[in-house]
Write a structure and sequence with these properties.
alpha/beta; seven-stranded parallel β-sheet; globular; NmrA-like; NmrA-type_oxidoreductase; NAD(P)-bd_dom_sf; SDR family oxidoreductase
Length: 291
C-alpha cells in the first residue's frame, strides 16, 4: 500500500496520476485528505481516501495503518516556517508509530552556505525535517526538488505580454527551474522501483537560466521585445506597492528574487533525467506552452 499526502493538491494529485500510469492498481493507493468531501474524485477511481490533518497526530496514526510506503508532500502552510517543520515531524512520528516501512519526502534543492541566503528560513524547515527523518529509523528517500517552472509566469507578472517588461530584482542570477509534473513523476518512479532507501536526490533541470534568458524566450514566443529590469530591492518594492501588490506577495517576490540573485537555486543534476528516461522540460519549452 502506497499513501500520498496532500492528495488533492497540485503535487500529490499528479503523483497519484503517475502511479496509476505506471500500473499501480488503485486498490494499492491511498490518499490523505483533510476533508473527505474533497476526495470524491479519488474514490471514484478506486483509491482509498483517508482523512487526516498534518496537525492532528491521532488522525495521522489512524490513516497510516497498513501503509508500506508514504509520500510526504511538504506542507504549504503559509504561516511561520517552524509550523511546517512541526507538521512534518508530526507525520514522521505517526508513520513510525504506524510501522510505515519507507517514507519519501519532498524537500527543496540546497547548496552549501544556504544559511546566508534570503530563503534560509524556508530552507531550515526542510533541513530540520530531513534531519528528523534520517534519525527516525524509518527507511527514507529525500527528494530535493528544484524550483517550479510554474513560478516563472508569477515572477514575470501577468501583464508582461502587454507591457513588454519584467521587473524582478534577481540580477544576473540563475536557477534550475523544473516542471512540477515531472517532479511528481520522479516521486512516482521512486515509489515504484527499488534501491532508493537512505538516498538523497537532487532533482533539478539540466541547465540553469537567468531572467535575461527568460525575458528573451518570452519575447521570442510573443514576437515582441521583452526587457528584463533588475531593480534595487527598495525600488522594486516601492513600485510593487504603487501597482497595488499586497505586502505578503511583495515579500515573497523579493525573497525568491534575491535567492536567484545569490545563486541559491543554481544547481544542475542529471538524476531527474535518469528517473524520467528523457530530458526534463526546458524553460523555453515551458514558455512556448504558457505564452
Amino acid at each position: 500500500m502506497i499513501l500520498v499526502t496532500g492528495a488533492t493538491g497540485q503535487f500529490g494529485s499528479k503523483a497519484i496520476d503517475h502511479l496509476l500510469n505506471k500500473g499501480v492498481r488503485p486498490s494499492e493507493i491511498s490518499a490523505l485528505v483533510r476533508n473527505v468531501a474533497n476526495g470524491h474524485h479519488l474514490k471514484s477511481r478506486g483509491i482509498e481516501v483517508k482523512v487526516g490533518d498534518y496537525t492532528d497526530y491521532d488522525s495521522l496514526v489512524k490513516a497510516f495503518q497498513g501503509v508500506e510506503k508514504l509520500l510526504l508532500v511538504s506542507s504549504n502552510d503559509r504561516q511561520a516556517f517552524e509550523n511546517r517543520t512541526a507538521q512534518h515531524i508530526n507525520i514522521i512520528k505517526a508513520a513510525k508509530e504506524a510501522d510505515v516501512k519507507h517514507l519519501i519526502y519532498t524537500s527543496f534543492v540546497r547548496k552549501t552556505n544556504f544559511e546566508n541566503s534570503s530563503i534560509a528560513a524556508f530552507q531550515n524547515s526542510h533541513v530540520q525535517t530531513e534531519a528528523y527523518l534520517i534519525d527516525s529509523g524509518i527507511d527514507y528517500t529525500i527528494l530535493q526538488n528544484g524550483i517550479y517552472l510554474e513560478m516563472i509566469p508569477i515572477f514575470a507578472g501577468e501583464k508582461v505580454a502587454e507591457t513588454g517588461v519584467i521587473l524582478f530584482p534577481a540580477r544576473d542570477g540563475k536557477a534550475s527551474y523544473v516542471l512540477r509534473d515531472e517532479l511528481a513523476e520522479a516521486a512516482a518512479h521512486v515509489l515504484t522501483t527499488e534501491g532508493h532507501e537512505k538516498q538523497i536526490y537532487s532533482l533539478t533541470n539540466s541547465t540553469s537560466v537567468s531572467f535575461s534568458e527568460i525575458a528573451k524566450a518570452i519575447g521570442d514566443q510573443l514576437g515582441k521585445d521583452v526587457k528584463y529590469q533588475s531593480l534595487e530591492v527598495d525600488l522594486f518594492e516601492s513600485k510593487m506597492k504603487q501597482f497595488g501588490v499586497p505586502d505578503l506577495y511583495i515579500g515573497m517576490f523579493t525573497m525568491w528574487a534575491m535567492a536567484q540573485a545569490q545563486g541559491t537555486m543554481d544547481v544542475v543534476d542529471d538524476t531527474l533525467e535518469a528517473f524520467l528516461g528523457r530530458k526534463p522540460t526546458t524553460m523555453s519549452q515551458f514558455i512556448a506552452q504558457i505564452y
